[in-house]
Design brief:
Blueprint: E1 8-11, H1 16-25, E2 29-30, H2 35-40, E3 52-56, E4 62-67, H3 69-79, E5 86-90, E6 98-106, E7 110-114, E8 119-123, E9 136-143, E10 153-156, E11 160-163, E12 166-170, E13 175-177, H4 183-191, E14 203-207, H5 216-240, E15 247-250, E16 254-260, H6 262-273, H7 282-288, H8 292-303, H9 313-320, E17 327-333, E18 339-350, E19 355-361, E20 380-386, E21 391-397, E22 403-411, E23 415-416, E24 420-432, E25 438-441, H10 443-451, H11 457-473
Parallel strand pairs: 1-2, 1-3, 8-10, 13-14, 17-24
Antiparallel strand pairs: 3-4, 4-16, 5-16, 6-7, 6-9, 6-15, 7-8, 9-10, 11-12, 12-14, 17-18, 18-19, 19-20, 20-21, 21-22, 22-24, 23-24, 24-25
Helix pairs in contact: 1-6
Length: about 475
Amino acid sequence: MTDDSAANVRVRGIYATALTRALLDAGHRVVQASPPIRRRFDADLPAADHDAAIETGPDRQGVTVAGDPDAVDSVRSLLADTGIDTLAWTDPAPVGAVFDGRVTETLGSGAVVSLGEAEGFLPFGAVDDRVDEGDTVRVQVTEAAAPWDDDRAALDTGLRVEAGLATLVRGRDGVRVAGRDDAAGRELAGITDLLDSEPPEGWGLEWARDARDAEMGTLGDALERASERATELERAVDDAGDPEPVREVASPAAGAWIWFGRESRFALDEVRREVTATMPGHHRTKAGTEAASAGVDFAETLCGGDLGGEFPFSVVADQFGPNEGDRVRIDHGKPSGRRIVLGTGEVVERDDDGTLAVERSMSGGGVYDALGTRREPGDTALTKFREGRWWYPTIYRSSDGEQKGTYVNVCTPVELFPDAVCYVDLHVDVIKYPDGTVERVDDDELDAAVEAGEVPPELAEKARNVAASIERAI
């Protein structure tokens, strides 16, 4: 990688150590590093401005990348190669993008706004006048939404520009510093007038918390870049004229979402282990529940390099779940990034080898997908998941125990988290009818997902091989 293509990247969250190592190895510069990261790396990690920021995403299932389009594209390409079950998506509504949207629904505290490929939520407190269904509104994205999360992007009617350490807000006066009110923050606010650059007229300045440690030259460059973007954004909005739904008016920054599957988390463990003591399943355990982070850190500090060679599933599950009697969701991810909750069931059995049996009561009406057998009141579905396996079977039975068929779902390696079973469906499945006939289905959907760029070819080939093995076995 040349210096011209190297990006300044800020990294935060549970994947920070591994991603810092990967970024440095790829020739990028990691800036504004946290104290633990600075202690772990014998490298130059300056308090410079960043081109892109990486943070842990919702449910700790992956990360978000946001910032300059070229930097985001470069970082996304790097992270997408983490493992065979890493998936990546471009954010259709990144932070800072301005849209003319249409109100599709009003709720108690705000309005749902269609932005085209995405939806956003506009609080009523962010608008001067009443908005109703069908109205056109010009909005800016203030918080992005992961494709696998239930939340919508957060919207506002004001304008702000984030450019690393400096954020400019139209209609605000003066200088603010994020974080607590301390001497360093007050000093930073006071020396802003000494910089060569200044905000455009009508824009107020807010420094990021990390700006306290930056040098004067870095601060000046950050403010200059933010000012240029603010001027460009204001011009684009003014040139757009009156709101005209539904369209993107301006997008000064880009965003991407990276989802790490189980094999990818273990690959990140290996990268992290090059830097510091790392227990088997470090990222897998931390992704399962926020409560596990302190325990993982304690174990690694206490045991040093002697942490064993196998992921201690039973120990982790005993401590955090799931256990027999618990209820868990079945989070059925799709290669497009969406997540569908198939339902919630009771854990009726859990073995130390990582096998979980989940039973659900089924409602009546319709038929079971692909099987064609009727759904009737009193039916049950018994699903057996095994940690790390690329497939799982669900057996449907009537109220009197008669089998109505078996559906084997091919997916990325299953993860048994305390409150949910997680994976991404890979479309192709194998079914067994009540009469014993076996059929493989939905290969065409997998082919379409590959064609659309949603499933990498290597992952698709793995799914086909798994399906073929299951078809022969049952």
